[in-house]
What we know:
86 residues, mainly alpha
Amino acid sequence: xxxxxxxxxxxxxxxxxxxxxxxxxxxxxxxxxxxxxxxxxxxxxxxxxxxxxxxxxxxxxxxxxxxxxxxxxxxxxxxxxxxxxx
Length: 86
């Protein structure tokens, strides 16, 4: 089946072959989408309207505590010296 091309070398969209090809591709895409598993949510954390983690929940409080600990460690004397002598 010789496919008719335009002057630019692309497939001529007006031909029957092109339309059949597009139809097959659409069917294949639909079948792939149907067979694909629905994406499971990454985390089950409760979030606020703005999209941030709700700090009132148990998990949110744990996250906040870890972040505070990391913030505190970031400014420790040992880390300040490391940054100074890099």
